[in-house]
Here is the input.
Amino acid sequence: MANRGEIAVRVIRACREMGLETVAIYSEADKGSLHVELADEAYLVGPAPARQSYLNIPAIMNIVTQSGADGVHPGYGFLAENAGFASVCQLWGVKFVGPGAQAIERMGVKAQAKETMRQADVPVVPGSDGVVTSLSEAEAVASRIGYPLIVKASAGGGGRGIRVVQEPSELASALERAASEAQASFGDGSLYIERFLVDPRHIEIQVIADGKGRVAALGERESSIQRRRQKVLEEAPSVAVDPALRRRMEDAAARAAQAVGYESAGTIEFLLDADGSFYFMEMNTRVQVEHGVTELVTGVDIVKEQLRIAMGEPLSCEERMPLVGHAIECRINAEDPQKDFRPSPGTITAFEPPGGFGVRVDSGIREGNQVSPFYDSMVAKLMTWGRDRPEAIARMRRALREFRVEGVQTTIPIHMQLMEDPDYVEGKLDINFLERRIAAGGFPGA
Ligand code: MV4
Here is the structure.
């Protein structure tokens, strides 16, 4: 397990249930952590900084050799979407639990990914055909698709290197600034242009492919509640998706996975416009933080499916699964909402998660652990399931009230406010939902 925290615990638990022996790696900052204790073997991989530990490919491969591991699960973050790491595992004769390096590579270059999708009949946002190489070409695209439009870095993704252009007079300068920013951030200044969708929803489809032609599409997740491109809360299914739209999005996502010869778990991210049309945004070639809400409404253990596929076994779920009930995930981060969500590292002096029917807490920390400034600030994922969305919300309110974390500030108060927000309760969400509230002072101190 080439990762740490809650996802390391999650994968080790799945392995144990399947009778697979587990090897953990840990940095000096993670000595006493839960995933180290749960694994059959654990190896120190290096000092706390990620570059010297969880991103240190030579050190990780040494542990693979020493331990005799025959598979490596990358989790998410760190090396999960690093094609080089996937290639090194292949060279080493060790199974990378995820897609092949080629799929990671192809989906990592956003303009190329979009072109691949267009050829697979996956709806894409109208815009340039690949990257634009001159102002006149950009102006020709702009006159075809109209304003507002968005300029994106081909090597970008995750919200970096994008610029919205409201009118023709802004186009030239926006292109220049976006190109130099992309060059600085990604070493590649190439840009592409799309029509800008105003206040869409962010809807993503979970897929699992066996690499031999079968692709399961497991419904959608609503991931619109986010701040500065970091997801805060996710749910499955989306109130904006009816069975017909779901089937169209699932079929598009399955075609996308087929088009890249995908293997293992992946997520196709779409933008859903108010008129019900949806467009490919990005494909994530990893298991995602929010995979648990899909598990709760389908009953499919996504990590176990990944491990089965890695061992050459067939998918154990149907290609389309009925969704039962409604699930919500609140990311509990050690951040201070009173101080612009700045990380709030420190020692966890009390950690008492909620329980009861329909409550799931995935976390990698315990009382006495340090929330380290070296890694991301997520300490737990609190999920609730209900027979319908109102019950899932009521259960989440109750669970948030029970959740006791002391020693650090957390985002629990934000989630409590969200669960009481009339628009949230009515399901009126879009990608600017949270930032509108923060801008309007909705979250004092945020
Ligand atoms: C868009 C968009 C509106 N129209 N593309 C954000 C980063 C990258 N994933 C693409 N993103 C967007 N692309 C068009 N044509 C709005 C966003 C966007 C966004 C998308 C999903 C979730 C949150 C977001 C926050 C800001 C912008």
Q: What stands out?
A: The radius of gyration is 22 Å.
